[in-house]
Design a protein that fits this description.
This protein has 130 residues and is α/β, with parallel strands linked by helices. The protein has 2 domains: 75 residues, no CATH class; 42 residues, no CATH class. The chain contains 5 helices and 5 strands, in the order H-E-E-E-H-E-H-E-H-H. The chain has a 3-stranded parallel β-sheet with strand order 1-4-5, covered by helices on one side. It is globular, with a radius of gyration of 17 Å. InterPro entries: OxRdtase_FMN_N, Oye-like. Its cofactor is FMN. Pfam families: Oxidored_FMN. Keywords: Flavoprotein, FMN, NADP. This is NADH:flavin oxidoreductase/NADH oxidase N-terminal domain-containing protein.
């Protein structure tokens, strides 16, 4: 939340390499933030040096859509792609991906609210068309 480092790539690389010493099973990193106006990453593939340095399972997150996620796996930029906001707004996300169905838009105003229901359990599932 608005924290930063003077050299984030060097710090990330150091951390990824250091985790190897402890045989950590996985490393979950956030791709550099997306531009909220365009919803696209300003620095695509910014985690590649950390991916190459870490010897365990490498998870990435950061605004991936289905195509970008599949490309990240196919091009060995990650072992797993995490879909936080998209999964929150689409409780049936794997099914939607399989069908190439449209996604529900997430509502940032309901993230991290004290209401335990609004925004976490009220997104609609695809209607059953079978």
């Amino acid at each position: 939340m608005e924290s930063g480092d003077s050299n984030p790539e060097a710090l990330g690389l150091y951390m990824a390499e250091s985790l190897n010493k402890y045989r950590i099973l996985y490393c979950h990193m956030v791709e550099p933030r997306i531009n909220p106006a365009s919803e696209k990453r300003e620095t695509p593939h910014g985690l590649l040096p950390m991916r190459k340095a870490f010897r365990g399972t490498f998870l990435v997150v950061g605004g991936y859509d289905k195509e970008e996620g599949n490309n990240a796996i196919a091009k060995n930029r990650a072992d797993l792609v995490v879909y936080g906001r998209h999964f929150l707004a689409n409780p049936d996300l794997p099914w939607r991906f399989k069908l190439n169905a449209p996604l529900n838009k997430y509502n940032r105003d309901t993230f991290y609210t004290p209401d335990p229901v609004v925004g976490y359990t009220d997104y609609p599932f695809l209607e059953d068309t079978s």
